[in-house]
Amino acid sequence: MSTCIFCRIAAGEIPATILHQDDEVVAFSDLTPQAPFHALVIPKRHVSTLNDLASADDALVGRLVRVGATLAQERGYGVRGYRTVFNCNADAGQSVFHVHLHVLAGRSLTWPPG
Ligand code: AMP
């Protein structure tokens, strides 16, 4: 059994509110939402950080982004706007080492981020 919590969510071994699932990608609600809508979009295959992506993963990364954009648009945030974020390693605050795209929407988000 994997020790990676997001691998275990992708495998259905631990519960999550699943928002999208296909052969390569799973999206689910963040457990500690930072906005009225806060989803995480992950590859089913384990990839620890953005640094571990190869050129062969370009289409997979595009798919993560497109799924995130579609989720936001389906909920009516397309015009108003939303933020997508990949955190990588310590300075960015990455806490789960399985690549994930945050999709945040439903409030005005400040810039620059903290
Ligand atoms: P990051 O800090 O970029 O690595 O983001 C990790 C995110 O995963 C955080 O926003 C957490 O709230 C979220 N998270 C951690 N465990 C779970 C879980 N079991 N289900 C859903 N979201 C989770």
List the helices and strands and how they pair.
Elements: H1 5-10, E1 18-21, E2 25-29, E3 37-43, H2 58-74, E4 82-85, H3 89-92, E5 101-105
Antiparallel strand pairs: 1-2, 2-3, 3-5, 4-5
Bound molecules: adenosine monophosphate.
What do you see in this structure?
This protein has 114 residues and is an alpha+beta fold. The chain has a single domain, classed as HIT family, subunit A (2-Layer Sandwich), CATH 3.30.428. 24% of the residues lie in helices and 22% in strands. It has 3 helices and 5 strands. Strands 1-2-3-5-4 form a 5-stranded antiparallel beta sheet, covered by helices on one side. A hairpin with a 7-residue loop joins strand 2 and strand 3 (37-43). The model has no long low-confidence stretch (mean pLDDT 97). Adenosine monophosphate is lined by residues 5, 16, 28, 30-32, 40, 87, 93-96.
